[in-house]
Amino acid sequence: MAIFRFNSFLRFLGQHKVYTAIEIFGLSVSLMFVILILTYSRQELTTDRFHADAERIYMLGDEQHNMSAYGIAGRLKERYPEIEDYCYVTSAILFAGQDEIPVLTEGKKWNSSVSFVNDNFFRFFSFPLVIGNKDYVMANQNEAVVSESYARKVFGSEDPVGKTLVMNDSISFVVNGVMKDIRHSVIKYNDILLRTENLRRFRSDMDGNTYNNALSTNAFVKEQEGASLASKAEDMCDYLKTVYWFFEREIAKNVEFIPITEAYYAPNFGYMYNKGDKQLVMILLAVGLLILIFAVINYINLTVAQTGFRAKEMATRSLLGSSRLSLFSRLIGESIVLTFISFLIGLFLAFAARPYAERILDTTIDLYAMLTPVNLLLALVAIILIGFITGLLPALLISRTKAVDVVKGGFRKKTKMVFSRFFITFQNAITIALMAAALVMISQVNHLMKAPLGYNTENIIDIPAETLGGKEKIMTLANEFRRLSAVSLVSTPAGTPFNGGNNNTIEFEDRSIGFQTLIVDSAFMEMLGIEIIRENHVASNNGFYLNEYALKEQNLPMEAETFTFYQPDVPIAGVIKDFNLRNILWEKQPINLQIRKTEEFHPWNILVQVQGDPFIGWQQVKDKYEEILGVEFNGEFIDQQVADSFAVQKRISEIVGIFAIIAILLSLLGLLAMSTYFIQQRSREIGVRKVFGSNNTQILTRLVGTFLNYVFIAFVVATPIIWYLMRDWLSGYSYRIHLSPMFFILAGLGCFVISFVTVFFQSYMAANANPVDSIKTE
């Protein structure tokens, strides 16, 4: 009997192929998104929970920063028994200006991301090793651990253990372990891990005793079982005021312990570790739910539209003795079967779409990790629940049908548009809202990327220089760039407006002022177009150029000739116009800039301005760099650096845009099927109207107008809601666009045009059909 019923359902689906395809496509695509989103969200919301002692591991910070100075955690452990152990994680960005540095191995140089950690790293955390023992790897200072993917890329099938890694042309390390790639952690993925004792070999001031670099490391501490680090925070703060200038000057006022399971979303400043965006996760979950609701609505809408066909079958079964409960159960079962089929297709699509999703979200999505017995059982429960929900309304309508109503056609008249009107209007409202949101977000991101920063960003390539070797090699490379035909200007500064140069915090009166210091050559000023408002020629050789904001911070007039910088009466060489560091969203900061001859300082960067076609210039610079250094080029255009600094905003706008397209597609398919069945059911009415004198245009207008009315209602409903949400979203940006009515008008017009095109052709054919045929058929 069950096989008979299932075969009957399959025959029904085969007889209504369009209906079947739209339902399965809609559910499959929406379930694909749900699978990807849930996997991603689970990873994001459970970051670092896999560590054996996760509940006892904290990141050491203060009320503003989730970072510390190298050496502080060890100092605290000596004094406070509540700290069982500690571990530092410091990125090469500290001395290289970036995560990657050139590493020579097997006769070839590779740009490799490097971090420095304590030798207890694999005992402190639960990151697994592929080769090596956690008690012995990095036992010696010159030993290194490499990641699994790095070992595969660099050494191929060879055993990496025992291989030599050479950095800065002279510092050698031997590989004695291979780790699984670090994923889903606040700690960044690294190609190579070295012991923290090696920091001094790259940066001499990192001795762990002076604490000169206040925000130089991520310090993790492990709480003794049964102890409370939080209860000691105030005492620790008092102690640090006696040994650590950052607390002594009250730049930091509180010691804070951020649980490692919460550090991923902690709002405080930090740049050496992974930071999550909970807003993005919530947006994905919300929009994914909307897409699933769309698919469920399409299923309900189409099934309700099919009630005329199914009701005849069910009425016949009722006359043959089937109970109302059995009819209801049958329809619910059919819905669950269809949902199960859609889930299998959706799972296949999720694996196919995973690389694209990983690119957009800039992470890995481990779908295989989700295929556990518990998760599969939960998926089965979800399938049954979704199937029950999608089939409930149609099952109630059809199972309660009286045979006499079906014969008379009364059932169709009572149900044919009540639910459809609501669902179509709801879908259009959500579609308009998503389209408007995507337009606003894309416009805002473009507005941020194109914002004037107060200096030139176009056609300038920024090349990190701190790890290229000695100054002689840097200047040789710069001179070679100057000889290229596509290069107009070359500068070798210590710092750029994008990286902010060096931070120098001074005490002024009763407060601290953090200066961003750039040491530059004369070509820098010309290349970047830094505007000098006033120049003091007497002090131009040994003084600082201050921006307007720096004068304001020290309450100095434009004509001031000296300022305070660690000591009073430091000469002011001139005043430069304010410009934004990094991007337009960064708050203004005091800037002091020194113009010196290149032989007087060590460059951090090589800036190359190209002329003509920027891509030709880029290629020339890239080829020369790789020819001289034998390592992959790692320069970037400054305008691209600025654009990349808005990666999170771009990601959110791209995701909302994708979901808007999916919503449009699902709405289009649902509307196409609904309009087709609606027009079929009104064929007799159309024939009668034509017999009584209505022309084709009148009928076409009436049919199309019916659906366009729903778009208008949806527009009226959606506009105030999305206006409120977008106004709230934009309020989070100090530099933002005006929320123009055109965003909502364009979204409404877009939905209107799509709906018009979707229903026009079916309506046109129905309006031009022979009325005799439709009346005869009915």
Helix-strand blueprint:
Layout lengths: L1 H14 L1 H29 L11 E6 L9 H8 L3 E9 L1 H4 L3 E6 L2 E10 L3 H4 L4 E3 L11 E5 H8 L8 E4 L3 E9 L12 E4 L3 H4 L15 E6 L9 H11 L1 H4 L6 E5 H4 L14 H28 L1 H13 L4 H38 L11 H27 L3 H6 L1 H6 L2 H32 L10 E5 L6 H12 L4 E5 L10 E7 L2 E10 L1 H7 L3 E4 L8 E4 H6 L8 E2 L6 E7 L14 E5 L9 E6 L3 H16 L6 E2 H7 L2 H35 L1 H9 L4 H35 L10 H27 L3 H7 L1
Parallel strand pairs: 4-9, 6-8, 15-20, 17-19
Antiparallel strand pairs: 1-10, 1-11, 2-4, 2-10, 3-4, 3-7, 5-8, 6-9, 7-8, 12-21, 12-22, 13-21, 14-15, 16-19, 17-20, 18-19
Helix pairs in contact: 2-11, 2-13, 2-23, 11-14, 11-17, 11-23, 12-14, 13-14, 17-23, 17-25, 17-26, 23-26, 24-27, 25-26
Description:
With 778 residues, the protein is an alpha+beta fold. The chain has three domains: 1-47 and 276-416, no CATH class; 54-263, no CATH class; 460-611, no CATH class. Helix content is 52%, strand content 16%. It is built from 27 helices and 22 strands. Strands 14, 15, 16, 17, 18, 19 and 20 form a seven-stranded mixed sheet that branches. Strands 3-4-9-6-8-7 form a six-stranded mixed barrel. It has a four-stranded antiparallel sheet with strand order 13-21-12-22. α13 packs across α14 (373-399), α17 (418-449) packs antiparallel against α23 and α23 runs parallel beside α26 (741-767). It is globular. The protein starts with a helix and ends with a helix.
Task: State the main characteristics.
16% strand; 52% helix
